[in-house]
Amino acid sequence: MKEKQRGLTLIYTGDGKGKTTASIGLSVRAVGHGLSVKILQFIKSKGRSYGEQISLEKLGVEMVQLGEGFTWTKTPDVHRKALESAWTVAKETVMSGKYDVVVLDELNNALAIDSFPVDDVLPIHEVKELIQNKPQHVHLVITGRNAKEEIKELADLVSVVDVEKHYYDEGVKAVRGIEF
Q1: Among residues 158, 140, 82, which one has the least CA distance to residue 113?
Q2: What is the pLDDT of residue 4?
Q3: Res 1: pLDDT
Q4: 89-101 in b/e burial notation, b at 16+ Cβ within 10 A?
Q5: What is the pLDDT of residues 117-151, one digit of tens each?
Q6: Which residues have a Cβ under 8 Å from the Cβ of 162 and sit 6 or more positions away?
């Protein structure tokens, strides 16, 4: 039996578009090589349809929305409850060892919320412990803007996606098949 490779921790962060897209590309590649993948989304809500989720389901990849959408769309208590639940699901998923790749999409965004307290429901020290104590074979991918320095220090790879030009600046709204 072939020994499994040490699982890596990869961070995709920055203000540019493409962090989630990069993690999905990595997920597609992993499935192509026979790895099992699960994607958990911390901010996106269940009430919408996402093109990437439709495609990934065809590949046998479960993508689960655990959030409530943008932080200004619901009360802080609603978001806090969702983050607490999402964090429990994330810990259980990673530590189960069932998946070779686990994507924690927009976890960085959730950790960076400063409009209401989140550290008691999504403690940074627990995120660090998860990275340090995950099963040896699990590749952990964490996306989102504003990655915390202490998380980046624990990562094997940190890619920063910067924006040089964006069509939003010219009034172009979100495009079906590009943003969602």
Answers
A1: 82
A2: 64
A3: 39
A4: ebeebbeeeebbb
A5: 999 999 999 999 999 999 999 999 999 999 999 99
A6: 14, 15, 16
Residue 148 near residue 113 (C-beta atoms within 8 A) = no
Whether residue 2 has pLDDT greater than 60: no
CA distances from 122 to 16, 44, 64, 130 (A): 25, 16, 18, 12
The closest alpha carbon to 101, from 53, 23, 59, 38, belongs to 38
Task: Pull the structure tokens for residue 45.
Answer: 């809500």
Per-residue three-class SS string for 100-127: CEEEEECHHHHHCCCCCCCCCCCCHHHH
3-state secondary structure of 83: helix
Place of tokens 């998946």: 99
Count CB atoms within 10 A of the CB of residue 126.
13
